[in-house]
Write a structure and sequence with these properties.
- The protein is mainly β.
- It is built from 1 helix and 19 strands.
- It has a 6-stranded antiparallel beta sheet with strand order 1-6-2-5-3-4, with no helix packed on it. Strands 10, 12, 15, 16, 17 and 19 form a 6-stranded antiparallel beta sheet that branches.
- A hairpin with a 6-residue loop joins strand 3 and strand 4.
- The longest helix has 4 residues.
Length: 244
Amino acid sequence: MNSHRFNIAAAGGSATFDNLVQFIRYEEGSAAGNVTPWVRLKTVSGNSIDFLMKPGRWTRLPEPVRGLVIINASGAPDLVADMSLGFGMAGDDAQLGTFDLSSTTLAALESTDLNDATQNVLRQPLLAGANWNSGATMAANTPLTIFAAAANTNGAIVWTAEAQDYAASALVQSFVAKATAPTGVLDGEVVELSHLSGISSTSFLSACRLGQPQRIAPGVGLHFISSVAGSAGQARSCRYTLLP
Protein backbone atom coordinates (compact mmCIF):
# COMPACT_ATOMS: atom_id res chain seq x y z
CA MET A 1 0.00 0.00 0.00
CA ASN A 2 1.37 3.41 -1.01
CA SER A 3 0.08 6.78 0.15
CA HIS A 4 -1.11 9.32 -2.40
CA ARG A 5 -2.53 12.83 -2.03
CA PHE A 6 -5.06 14.11 -4.56
CA ASN A 7 -5.75 17.85 -4.75
CA ILE A 8 -8.90 18.62 -6.73
CA ALA A 9 -9.73 22.31 -6.87
CA ALA A 10 -13.20 22.29 -8.44
CA ALA A 11 -16.35 20.63 -7.14
CA GLY A 12 -16.99 17.83 -9.62
CA GLY A 13 -13.37 17.95 -10.82
CA SER A 14 -11.25 14.82 -10.97
CA ALA A 15 -7.79 13.27 -10.84
CA THR A 16 -6.65 9.95 -12.32
CA PHE A 17 -4.45 7.26 -10.76
CA ASP A 18 -2.87 5.40 -13.68
CA ASN A 19 -1.28 2.44 -11.88
CA LEU A 20 -2.99 -0.88 -11.17
CA VAL A 21 -4.93 -0.85 -7.91
CA GLN A 22 -7.14 -3.34 -6.06
CA PHE A 23 -7.11 -2.15 -2.44
CA ILE A 24 -8.35 1.36 -1.63
CA ARG A 25 -8.27 3.05 1.76
CA TYR A 26 -9.43 6.66 2.12
CA GLU A 27 -7.31 7.87 5.03
CA GLU A 28 -8.14 11.56 5.46
CA GLY A 29 -9.76 14.35 3.49
CA SER A 30 -10.95 17.91 3.62
CA ALA A 31 -12.87 20.39 1.49
CA ALA A 32 -13.89 24.03 1.67
CA GLY A 33 -16.57 24.83 4.21
CA ASN A 34 -15.73 21.77 6.32
CA VAL A 35 -18.20 19.64 4.36
CA THR A 36 -17.79 15.86 4.28
CA PRO A 37 -15.05 15.28 1.66
CA TRP A 38 -16.81 12.58 -0.36
CA VAL A 39 -15.05 11.21 -3.42
CA ARG A 40 -16.60 9.25 -6.26
CA LEU A 41 -14.42 6.46 -7.64
CA LYS A 42 -14.81 5.29 -11.24
CA THR A 43 -12.70 3.58 -13.88
CA VAL A 44 -11.62 5.07 -17.19
CA SER A 45 -12.43 1.90 -19.10
CA GLY A 46 -12.64 -1.86 -18.79
CA ASN A 47 -13.84 -3.33 -15.48
CA SER A 48 -16.52 -0.92 -14.31
CA ILE A 49 -16.70 0.45 -10.76
CA ASP A 50 -18.69 3.46 -9.64
CA PHE A 51 -19.25 4.27 -5.96
CA LEU A 52 -18.85 6.96 -3.31
CA MET A 53 -16.43 6.85 -0.39
CA LYS A 54 -15.65 9.06 2.60
CA PRO A 55 -12.60 9.16 4.91
CA GLY A 56 -12.14 6.15 7.16
CA ARG A 57 -13.58 3.69 4.64
CA TRP A 58 -11.70 1.03 2.70
CA THR A 59 -12.44 -1.76 0.25
CA ARG A 60 -10.98 -4.47 -1.92
CA LEU A 61 -12.08 -4.45 -5.56
CA PRO A 62 -13.05 -7.80 -7.12
CA GLU A 63 -9.99 -7.54 -9.38
CA PRO A 64 -7.26 -4.98 -10.11
CA VAL A 65 -8.15 -1.96 -12.26
CA ARG A 66 -6.04 0.62 -14.07
CA GLY A 67 -7.10 4.21 -14.53
CA LEU A 68 -8.90 4.93 -11.26
CA VAL A 69 -10.69 8.28 -11.47
CA ILE A 70 -11.10 10.18 -8.18
CA ILE A 71 -13.91 12.75 -8.45
CA ASN A 72 -14.61 15.55 -5.98
CA ALA A 73 -18.16 14.63 -4.88
CA SER A 74 -18.20 16.84 -1.78
CA GLY A 75 -20.14 19.63 -3.49
CA ALA A 76 -17.42 22.09 -2.45
CA PRO A 77 -14.08 23.22 -3.94
CA ASP A 78 -10.52 22.57 -2.76
CA LEU A 79 -10.77 18.87 -1.98
CA VAL A 80 -7.67 17.22 -0.52
CA ALA A 81 -7.87 13.41 -0.33
CA ASP A 82 -5.16 11.25 1.24
CA MET A 83 -5.56 7.66 0.03
CA SER A 84 -3.62 4.41 0.35
CA LEU A 85 -3.67 2.44 -2.89
CA GLY A 86 -2.10 -0.85 -3.83
CA PHE A 87 -2.35 -4.65 -3.73
CA GLY A 88 -1.96 -5.47 -0.04
CA MET A 89 -3.37 -4.66 3.38
CA ALA A 90 -2.14 -5.66 6.80
CA GLY A 91 -3.71 -6.42 10.16
CA ASP A 92 -7.34 -5.47 10.65
CA ASP A 93 -7.26 -3.56 7.36
CA ALA A 94 -8.04 -6.85 5.63
CA GLN A 95 -11.73 -6.34 6.40
CA LEU A 96 -13.93 -5.11 3.61
CA GLY A 97 -15.30 -1.64 4.08
CA THR A 98 -18.46 0.07 2.95
CA PHE A 99 -19.67 0.89 -0.54
CA ASP A 100 -21.67 4.12 -0.24
CA LEU A 101 -23.81 4.66 -3.33
CA SER A 102 -25.25 7.98 -2.24
CA SER A 103 -24.15 10.66 0.16
CA THR A 104 -27.59 12.26 0.04
CA THR A 105 -29.52 9.05 0.79
CA LEU A 106 -26.80 7.32 2.78
CA ALA A 107 -29.08 6.07 5.53
CA ALA A 108 -31.23 4.27 2.99
CA LEU A 109 -28.49 2.88 0.77
CA GLU A 110 -25.52 2.12 3.00
CA SER A 111 -24.26 -1.47 3.08
CA THR A 112 -21.63 -2.58 5.57
CA ASP A 113 -19.70 -5.83 5.78
CA LEU A 114 -19.25 -6.85 9.42
CA ASN A 115 -17.26 -9.61 11.10
CA ASP A 116 -19.13 -11.73 13.66
CA ALA A 117 -17.53 -13.53 16.61
CA THR A 118 -16.39 -16.40 14.38
CA GLN A 119 -14.83 -13.97 11.85
CA ASN A 120 -17.41 -14.83 9.19
CA VAL A 121 -18.28 -11.94 6.91
CA LEU A 122 -21.90 -10.85 7.33
CA ARG A 123 -23.10 -8.84 4.35
CA GLN A 124 -25.95 -6.41 4.82
CA PRO A 125 -27.87 -6.10 1.53
CA LEU A 126 -28.29 -2.71 -0.09
CA LEU A 127 -31.66 -1.08 0.30
CA ALA A 128 -33.39 -0.08 -2.92
CA GLY A 129 -33.83 3.64 -3.46
CA ALA A 130 -37.34 3.29 -4.92
CA ASN A 131 -39.95 0.75 -5.85
CA TRP A 132 -42.77 0.38 -8.37
CA ASN A 133 -45.76 -1.94 -8.62
CA SER A 134 -48.91 -2.15 -10.69
CA GLY A 135 -52.01 -4.28 -10.83
CA ALA A 136 -53.51 -2.42 -13.79
CA THR A 137 -54.92 -4.36 -16.72
CA MET A 138 -52.29 -4.33 -19.47
CA ALA A 139 -53.26 -3.11 -22.93
CA ALA A 140 -51.43 -4.59 -25.90
CA ASN A 141 -48.08 -2.89 -26.66
CA THR A 142 -48.85 0.01 -24.30
CA PRO A 143 -45.99 0.41 -21.79
CA LEU A 144 -46.13 1.29 -18.13
CA THR A 145 -43.26 3.57 -17.09
CA ILE A 146 -41.26 2.52 -14.02
CA PHE A 147 -38.89 5.49 -14.23
CA ALA A 148 -38.49 8.02 -17.02
CA ALA A 149 -35.30 8.65 -18.99
CA ALA A 150 -35.15 12.22 -17.65
CA ALA A 151 -34.90 10.91 -14.07
CA ASN A 152 -32.00 8.58 -14.91
CA THR A 153 -29.08 11.00 -15.25
CA ASN A 154 -26.29 8.78 -13.86
CA GLY A 155 -27.50 5.25 -14.46
CA ALA A 156 -29.60 2.90 -12.37
CA ILE A 157 -29.51 -0.53 -10.77
CA VAL A 158 -32.56 -2.77 -11.01
CA TRP A 159 -32.48 -5.01 -7.93
CA THR A 160 -35.65 -7.06 -8.44
CA ALA A 161 -38.32 -7.25 -11.15
CA GLU A 162 -41.12 -9.76 -11.59
CA ALA A 163 -44.54 -10.09 -13.18
CA GLN A 164 -47.30 -12.54 -14.03
CA ASP A 165 -50.35 -12.36 -16.30
CA TYR A 166 -52.65 -14.52 -18.39
CA ALA A 167 -54.67 -14.17 -21.57
CA ALA A 168 -56.75 -16.21 -24.01
CA SER A 169 -53.81 -16.31 -26.45
CA ALA A 170 -50.07 -16.67 -26.02
CA LEU A 171 -48.51 -13.53 -24.52
CA VAL A 172 -45.01 -12.19 -23.86
CA GLN A 173 -44.21 -9.41 -21.40
CA SER A 174 -40.92 -7.66 -20.72
CA PHE A 175 -39.06 -5.05 -18.71
CA VAL A 176 -37.44 -2.81 -21.35
CA ALA A 177 -34.87 -0.01 -21.01
CA LYS A 178 -35.24 2.70 -23.64
CA ALA A 179 -34.95 6.49 -23.93
CA THR A 180 -38.47 6.71 -25.38
CA ALA A 181 -41.58 4.64 -24.79
CA PRO A 182 -41.23 1.18 -26.40
CA THR A 183 -43.84 0.01 -28.87
CA GLY A 184 -43.28 -3.73 -28.37
CA VAL A 185 -41.74 -6.26 -26.00
CA LEU A 186 -38.46 -6.30 -27.98
CA ASP A 187 -38.30 -2.56 -28.69
CA GLY A 188 -35.25 -1.51 -26.68
CA GLU A 189 -32.81 -3.16 -24.29
CA VAL A 190 -34.70 -6.12 -22.83
CA VAL A 191 -33.81 -6.41 -19.15
CA GLU A 192 -36.11 -9.37 -18.48
CA LEU A 193 -38.46 -11.34 -20.75
CA SER A 194 -41.38 -13.50 -19.63
CA HIS A 195 -41.87 -17.16 -20.51
CA LEU A 196 -44.88 -19.44 -20.79
CA SER A 197 -45.39 -20.88 -17.32
CA GLY A 198 -48.75 -22.60 -17.69
CA ILE A 199 -51.57 -23.37 -20.09
CA SER A 200 -55.19 -24.49 -19.77
CA SER A 201 -58.05 -25.00 -22.17
CA THR A 202 -58.85 -21.27 -22.00
CA SER A 203 -55.74 -19.41 -20.87
CA PHE A 204 -52.00 -18.96 -21.33
CA LEU A 205 -50.05 -17.98 -18.19
CA SER A 206 -46.90 -15.87 -18.55
CA ALA A 207 -44.38 -15.04 -15.78
CA CYS A 208 -40.92 -13.54 -15.35
CA ARG A 209 -38.49 -12.85 -12.51
CA LEU A 210 -35.13 -11.06 -12.73
CA GLY A 211 -32.36 -13.52 -11.90
CA GLN A 212 -29.77 -10.99 -10.70
CA PRO A 213 -29.45 -7.19 -10.41
CA GLN A 214 -28.84 -5.34 -13.67
CA ARG A 215 -27.15 -2.01 -14.40
CA ILE A 216 -29.09 0.43 -16.60
CA ALA A 217 -27.23 3.05 -18.65
CA PRO A 218 -27.81 6.77 -18.02
CA GLY A 219 -30.38 8.56 -20.16
CA VAL A 220 -32.82 5.68 -20.62
CA GLY A 221 -36.07 4.89 -18.84
CA LEU A 222 -37.38 1.55 -17.65
CA HIS A 223 -40.75 0.29 -18.87
CA PHE A 224 -43.00 -2.75 -18.61
CA ILE A 225 -44.93 -3.85 -21.71
CA SER A 226 -47.17 -6.72 -22.88
CA SER A 227 -47.58 -8.18 -26.37
CA VAL A 228 -51.34 -8.68 -25.90
CA ALA A 229 -54.00 -7.34 -23.54
CA GLY A 230 -53.65 -8.94 -20.12
CA SER A 231 -56.14 -9.76 -17.39
CA ALA A 232 -57.38 -7.64 -14.48
CA GLY A 233 -55.77 -7.93 -11.06
CA GLN A 234 -52.41 -9.36 -12.14
CA ALA A 235 -49.23 -8.19 -10.44
CA ARG A 236 -45.87 -6.81 -11.47
CA SER A 237 -43.24 -5.07 -9.35
CA CYS A 238 -39.72 -3.62 -9.46
CA ARG A 239 -37.18 -2.34 -6.91
CA TYR A 240 -34.45 -0.05 -8.20
CA THR A 241 -31.92 2.67 -7.34
CA LEU A 242 -31.18 5.75 -9.46
CA LEU A 243 -27.47 6.41 -9.01
CA PRO A 244 -26.38 9.87 -7.77
